[in-house]
Design goal:
Structural class: mainly alpha
Oligomer: single chain
Shape: globular
Radius of gyration: 23 Å
Number of strands: 0
Mean pLDDT: 88
Distance between the termini: 15 Å
Number of helices: 21
Largest sheet: none
Length: 475
């Protein structure tokens, strides 16, 4: 059930109304039933829901055991059980064929596997809970209904954010009463997300998909534009989905973790990654980077730990060499930025640069980021990234009229380009001031309502209805 479908909107409206009609002690039970109904809507998930239930039951029982046992070997045994369950399911469905071909070669017989919806999200979320209980950072949840809802909460199971148990479980235990301001803010956040996805991401996707489907047929201007626009498309698609999830959860009475913080305004590559997919990077930081030693084991170990985290992040996205090399490249660039900062003795919190300098820094960082994501796009679309990189240097001698005609033929005419430029600038500036559902809701109604109408008109006239599911839904 895609968030950008009428079926979801009807489903969500019914769930939101019933959620506040029912007594508060029944809401976790109802929301759990609604979450499983959402999960089972897709036919392919009906036969795989047992995996979600198994991960839920095993990690919940392991948490209870870890809270009661004192013998370190028994505790490690239950931790290993949870690790084998979550990572075993994840490895089998996402990486079995990939590593089989890597290590066995041409004799390997791949299996026809269909990964369950939200596999990478609910396995990481439930495993993070067990690790927190094991390390004594969190008390075990005794109520199985609350825990099951934490693992399968439908706004977050499709593309996250990956929630921490210490943040979401207390909210499930104490449901909020209906609050008009919360619901109005949630509705606006959903509208904001739909504009990002259906107006910006999907319209960009028409051009990017056309070019990357046959990159050998396009010259440098088109390949360079596709590279720059794909990074923007991915951000608008993924963060737009998170906006819808956060807004929907807010209407239901829950506050989900913010997953992005104006990443394209970051002055450096390292800072951009601190603001991008923060729930995933936070998960890797807590459960991989710090246990590996973080920055406490010397400079060489610190660099290796950073690259390892980015490599795992690449693999988390999918079993393809494009994701692997994308992760390695991002890790190497992050290490290079860190070493350069140390060599130049730059402070960790530098004074703000003049605005023109900040703009140039943000543009430079974005270009580097977008060029890295050619590898990501190669895994997604199935093309040779080296051919795209080399192709960017040819075909720049075409005339202006020929280029304009070529871009229009690929789905990016002048009207669409102007609409995308204006709406993207508005979105980025709006998010530069913080959470849009907070500061815009505080404006005087004379300033606030025109924004509402403008977003609705953008969605009505330029929304690419029914174009595609969310990109990160497949991860």
């Amino acid at each position: 059930m895609n968030f950008n479908s009428l079926v979801f909107l009807g489903f969500f409206c019914a769930v939101a109304v019933l959620n506040y009609v029912l007594p508060r002690f029944l809401r976790p039970v109802f929301l759990l039933a609604a979450s499983y109904a959402f999960y089972l809507y897709e036919p392919k998930n009906a036969s795989l829901v047992a995996l979600l239930i198994a991960a839920t039951v095993i990690t919940w029982a392991s948490g209870l055991a870890l809270a009661r046992l004192e013998n370190k070997w028994a505790r490690r045994g239950f931790l290993a059980l949870s690790l084998l369950t979550c990572m075993g399911v994840l490895f089998f469905y996402k990486y079995y064929n990939f590593f089989g071909e890597v290590f066995v070669g041409g004799q390997f017989q791949p299996l026809e596997l269909v990964a369950p919806l939200g596999l990478s999200y609910f396995t990481f979320q439930s495993l993070g809970y067990v690790l927190d209980v094991f390390m004594g950072k969190l008390e075990a949840e005794k109520n199985p209904i609350r825990y099951a809802l934490f693992v399968s909460f439908f706004p977050a199971i499709v593309t996250g954010p990956i929630e921490q148990a210490g943040v979401l479980l207390p909210q499930i235990a104490a449901p909020r009463r209906f609050d008009y301001d919360r619901c109005a803010g949630g509705l606006f956040r959903m509208l904001w997300g739909y504009v990002k996805k259906m107006v910006i991401a999907d319209n960009i996707g028409l051009f990017v998909g056309q070019v990357y489907a046959r990159p050998g047929e396009y010259g440098g201007p088109y390949l360079a534009a596709a590279a720059l626009l794909f990074a923007l498309q991915l951000y608008m698609d993924f963060s737009g989905c998170c906006d819808v999830a956060i807004g929907a959860a807010r209407i239901l009475g829950f506050d989900l973790t913010e997953n992005f913080r104006s990443p394209f305004l970051a002055p450096t590559f390292r800072e951009l990654w601190r603001r991008w997919h923060m729930s995933l990077t936070g998960w890797f930081r807590r459960y991989v980077y710090i246990p590996l030693g973080g920055n406490r084991k010397g400079a060489v170990r610190h660099c290796l730990n950073l690259v390892a985290v980015f490599l795992l992040s690449g693999l988390w996205h999918g079993a393809a060499w494009g994701y692997v090399w994308w992760g390695v490249l991002c890790g190497v660039l992050s290490v290079g930025g860190m070493l350069l900062d140390k060599a130049l003795k730059r402070p960790k919190e530098p004074a703000p640069a003049p605005i023109p300098v900040q703009v140039l820094q943000a543009v430079r960082t974005y270009v580097i980021f977008a060029l890295c994501f050619v590898l990501f796009a190669a895994a997604l679309y199935g093309f040779d990234p080296m051919a795209v990189y080399s192709g960017m240097f040819s075909g720049w001698d075409a005339g202006r009229d020929a280029l304009a005609s070529g871009f229009a033929g690929a789905g990016l005419d002048s009207t669409t380009a102007l609409m995308l430029a204006g709406s993207t600038l508005g979105i980025l500036l709006g998010e530069a001031f913080g959470a849009v559902s907070e500061w815009i809701r505080k404006l005087w109604f004379v300033a606030r309502w025109p924004i509402y109408y403008a977003l609705c008109l953008l969605l009505l006239f330029f929304g690419a209805f029914g174009q595609s599911a969310y990109i990160y839904q497949q991860y």
